[in-house]
C-alpha cells in the first residue's frame, strides 16, 4: 500500500510542477505582448502612403488646371479662315465647311502673320478672310505658300497679336500626348480641342485629286480627332507648343490624321517676322526620297538614302550644271539629307544667289557639283 501511495504522490507533484511551469510561461507571455508598443515608424509608413496619395490628387488637379490654362492661351492665337466672306461680322456661321471653305490658322507673328494650309487659303497673292478669337474679321493676303507642303502664310493688317510658341518637331516621340485645335464644321464647334497621341512619325501618304497625284512626306500621324475645318490648325504639346499643322485625315478610317512638322517652316516664319518678306531660293529639281520611291512604278530605282532626281526644271539653277535626271543626291554642303522635307528645310536657310555643293551618286560614279540657287 505504501508503494502505491508513494507513486500517487509523485504523480501529483509532477502534475503540479507542470501546471506551475505553464502558468509562469503564460504570465510571461501575457506581460511581454501586453507591453509591446507600435513605434511611430509603423504609423509613419501609413502616413507617407496617405500623404503621397493626397499629393498625387493635388498634383493631378493642378496639372489639369494648368493644361486648361495652357489650352486657353493657345486658342487665343487660333483663327478662322475662309475663302468666302460671310455677310455678317464674322466668317463663322451655321453654314458647313464645304460652303464657306471654313478652316483654321495659327498666329505666328504679332504683326499679323498667320500659318495655315495652302489648300485652304489659296496660293501666293490669293485673298481670304480671317476671324480672330475676339470675333473681329479681317481681309487676308497669302504672302507665301508651298503646294508640296500644303502650307501658307497669310498677312492681315493688325499688330500686337497673341503668338503661338513653336516646338522642336525633330524631337517628337511616338506615344507622346498631343492636342489638336480647330474649327470643325462651323460656328457651333469653333476652336474645338481634341486629344490623342503621336501614333507615328515620318509618314508618307499619297494624295489624289482628280487626275493629279502627289506625295506628302515626313508627316506626323496622330489619333487626335481631325475633322473638316481642322485644316490649318495646330497640333500642340501639353505645354502649348506647336509641333505641327493639321492638314489631312484618312476618310476611310477613324483616328488617322496627319500634320506637317513645324520645323520645316520655321525659317520662313523667322524671315517674315524679322524682314516682313521671304525670298525663297530654289535648286530647280523635282525629287523623291526613299519614302516615296516605293510608290513609283519604276522598279529600277534603288534608293536607300538621299534624294532621287526625277526631273530637272528647264532653265532652272540645276539645269545649268552637270546634274542629271536619275542622279541620287546624297549630301548638301556635306550634310546628309534623308527626306524632301529635310531638303526644303535646308534650302529655306539659304538665299537666292547662294552657292551650295552637292554630292551625287550616278551608278558607280560619285562626284561633287556646285549649284547657284535661283529665286523661286
Q: What is shown here, in short?
A:
By secondary structure, the chain is an alpha+beta fold. 25% of the residues lie in helices and 33% in strands.
- The SSE string, one letter per element, is HHEHEEHEEEEEEEEEHEEEEEHEEE
From the alpha carbons, calculate the radius of gyration and give it in angstroms.
35 Å
The helicity comes to 25-40%
Shape: elongated
The unreliable regions are: 35-61, 86-100
| Secondary structure tally: strands | 20
Strand order of the largest sheet: 1-2-3-6-5-4
The top level CATH class name of the largest domain = Mainly Beta
The mean pLDDT is 82
**CATH-defined architecture of the largest domain:** Beta Barrel
Strand content: 25-35%
Distinct helical segment count:
6
Present the secondary structure layout.
Layout: H1 2-34, H2 40-75, E1 78-82, H3 97-100, E2 103-109, E3 113-116, H4 118-121, E4 127-131, E5 137-146, E6 151-155, E7 177-182, E8 192-209, E9 212-222, E10 234-236, E11 242-249, E12 257-261, H5 266-275, E13 281-282, E14 285-289, E15 307-312, E16 328-332, E17 335-336, H6 340-347, E18 355-362, E19 365-372, E20 374-375
Antiparallel strand pairs: 1-2, 1-4, 2-3, 3-6, 4-5, 5-6, 7-8, 7-10, 8-9, 9-12, 10-11, 11-12, 13-20, 14-15, 15-16, 16-17, 16-18, 18-19
Your description of this structure?
This protein is of the alpha+beta class and 376 residues long. It has 4 domains: 42-75; 76-155, Thrombin, subunit H; 169-266, Thrombin, subunit H; 279-375, Roll (Pdz3 Domain). The chain has helices at 2-34, 40-75, 97-100, 118-121, 266-275, 340-347, and strands at residues 78-82, 103-109, 113-116, 127-131, 137-146, 151-155, 177-182, 192-209, 212-222, 234-236, 242-249, 257-261, 281-282, 285-289, 307-312, 328-332, 335-336, 355-362, 365-372, 374-375. It has a 6-stranded antiparallel beta barrel. A hairpin with a 2-residue loop joins strand 16 (328-332) and strand 17 (335-336). The N and C termini lie far apart (134 Å). The model is unreliable at 35-61 and 86-100 (pLDDT under 50).
